[in-house]
Amino acid sequence: MKKLLLGTALGLLAVSTASADTITVVTSFPQDLTGPFKAAFEEAHPDHELEVVNRNTNASVAFLQETRDSNTTDIFWASAPDAFEVLKSENLLAKVDIQAEGIPDEIGSYPINDPDGFYYGFAASGYGIMYNTRYVEANELPVAQEWEDLMSAEYNGHVAMSAPSRSGTTHLTVETLLQGDGWEEGWAKWKWIAGNMNTVTERSFGVPDAVNSGSAGYGIVIDFFGLASKATGFPVELVYPSVTAIVPANIGVIENAPNEEGAKTFVEFVLSPEGQEVLLNPSIMRLPVNPEAYANAPEGFPNPFDEDFAPGAIAFDVDKSGARYNLVNSLFDVMITYRLDDLRAAVSAVQEAEAAHADSGNEEAQALIAEARTLIEALPITEEESLDPSFTGVFQVARKTEDTEVVGRQAEVEQEWDSFTVDNYRKARELAEQAAAL
Amino acid sequence: MSATSTQSSRFTLFPRLSGAAVAGILIAILLMAFLVLPVAQVIYVAFLDARTGALTLQNFEDFFNTTLFQQSFVNSFYVSAMSVVVATIIALPLAYITTRFNFAGTAIIQSLGFIPLIMPPFVGAVAMSLLFGRNGTVNLLLNDYFGFRIPFMEGLNGVILVQSIHYFPFILINLSAALRNIDRSMEESAQNLGASGLRLFRRIVFPLAMPGYLAGAALVFIKVFDDLGTPLLLNVNTMLAPQAYLRITGVGINDPMGYVISFILVAFSVFSLWASFLFMRGKDYATTQKGGGGLSKRELSTKEKILAYGVILLILALVLSPHFGLVLLAFGTIWSFSPLPDGFTLQHFHTVFTESAQYIYNTLLYAGTAAILDVVVGTAIAYIVIRTGLPGRKWLDYMATAALAVPGVVLGIGYLRMFHGIQLPFGLGPMASWWGIIIIALMIRRLPYALRSCMAALQQLSLALEEAAENLGASKSRTIRRVVVPLMAGGILAGFVTSFATAAVELSATIMLVSRASEAPLAYGIYLYMQSPAGRGAGAALGILAVVIVALGTYLSHRIIERDRLRTGRGEAEQ
Questions:
Q1: At what angle do helices A223-232 and A206-213 cross, to 10 degrees?
Q2: Which residues are the signal sequence here (chain A) (predicted)?
């Protein structure tokens, strides 16, 4: 105990007299990722020391916003590009000149680095479907290969995902489908998939947790959760659907950093071939952005620079996604997260009616089912509205342009959407029940 | 001339401020600086027009016009009320049997009954779903052998179950303390007058224990109403607290409704508290005789004993199951879609001991200091509110209790906003990233627990005892020191233990305030582990350590109080 006390006292002393060689990193990455990087970096640069502070993405952004007046952080290091966009728009990121070679401009169709040079992609992640092999076997389920597969009735109650408003990477998957299949088709797909869900989690890590422990069979997850779970020994597998978003995880230097030189050194290390190889560590398992790093990758490791990888990847429109970012999150929450029970009831009723009339040839029932399907898929707003600045402005408090006239308040709009959605789900369920009774 | 006049006016001003008044003012300043102002800094957004920044009540109108929020309010209220009912059903037999009968293992039962309160973040949740979830141990076995499942963890009922298991110790602790404090002569008089059995309990014992029961029940109600961890874990988000949380913590969004809900949570908590005061008003529960050993304990017949043990074991099995799951998780290798882990290992503990020793030390330091401060401030507030006539004294209580309803993340952001600009001397850096601020945050967040216990203890204490001491020549402060505080010891201890135990696993405010891993407490370490698939076992192992530490802390503080009581008891006898 005495030793412990002494150690802590010394530790505190060492921290309080930290020299300029300490680089303070705020990150949302787990110790599994930061540990190996810290070790490799400090070995390569013995004169620097990395101080890692772990917070989730939301808490990190709030922390950086609140402490801007006397900033103590050098680097922000996290997955979600949108968190970096928020920091960038509030002038919290510094534009520094980073020397890195051999890193292409794009991965899939997504730019690796911020075009304005405020943050850099250091690892790529794709979205996939993770499944628990024991669960699938016990329930005699097929393996879902594509997002569409998850819409069918046999997956009812077996799927999990996190809410896009809670997880920037989930948001990108939602937006990818909206862009790939179109606004209406895309939302329809999400609603049918969500109708099969047993949970919409609040943390993105909640999804791999649910699949690992077997409380859900399939999870819509970012790839490294699946790969790292498998590497840990859980009975899980990961598949990439052909339409997937490849998204870079990022690193950026904070404006007015106490140790900007050190920060630069660390960013350059992470992007160097040496740093990129750390990503192949079994507990990290993220895709390097430097194509050369794949030469030493283990057998079967996915390579997003490969031509065969995700052939259906779409050209992701970053501006479109950015313009309606909060609106899409809010719409998803209103229609799916907060009304999951209503949606599930409606979808189950339709699925049962369809099973009852699979080959009965009863036209009246088919008409009722078709009507119920239309009601479930109905959207309160069109794609044009979703991109109209006077409407998206409702969902942004910090507006960039003051001259845009904004109509309505978020709470007001959400209430309208909510009653529209709840009514439709209820009617859809009634129609489907009528159809099933025929 | 003017100097002398100020001096003379000061001279007349000072003596009027009694010790209690000075303490009251200091506490008011403390609460203003570390609770009211930081929270107000964050929550005032609720009164602003999101577009123009002008003051408005529009957001509140929106709140009451929104169906989702109306439903959330009803759900929150329903869940809180039902949780109080279920928690009472769990706590009452435990408290009653252990205080009324000569019963081997009373100390162990009381200690074990306390453990559910210490549910480390995340791991507790995982353990619960591995045991009771849709494909948890129980349901997998039920499904294999009988072909059906019980939805323990689904919907509002799941929330009620988990919350009651988690928070019933509030009732158990306060009710037991109150039962022990009841004057035996009351019971004997009732028996002499012919009351016995259930009637004695219903008409005499339970009413006399009412302050303790209400203190516990109010805590359970408010805590469940404001808690967001459990509903979020069960993915029930149509309740008020999760709605507030989800709307405040999104990246880059700043929905004023989140702050409106926070405001309503705080207001409703204060209202519930006021309602419980109202219920207690005009009733005097104080009894004069102290140290008579409380209720007389009866021997049980063999048959009764078997029944009592059966009931207690059943309840303990239910309420300790999450911790049983935690143990399995900490010693298990891979546990996935199976009733038990695939194998067992000590690896996770090895990981924890080699990597995380500093977390344990930090937790002891932070939670211990915070809890001591809590009981000191709690006792002072209780005394001021109940025993003095200071104007506005009730507001100390309301303010302190409102902390219960302030979401940790709101308090954390408020601290960053208020204290980051303040540089501390001695190279400690900005105040908001100094480790001491974590202690203050924990103290503020756990103060309501200590306060409720202290209030209940003082309510049961008759004024006559203090008057007697003063008549015998003791000064006010000596009376408090030698009579009031020792007689409140049980309640103070209960307050210390609840504050300490829950502070040891607090995460939501700490996570905003931790600035270095070397200064982080246990809960933060658990959070770190739980962010990766490989860390689940290690996180659970750290959770077990947290539980063991708190249990040891509880046991030690019991020992200290007992020893103290024996020593002073003997000392007085010798005189």
A1: 40
A2: 1-20
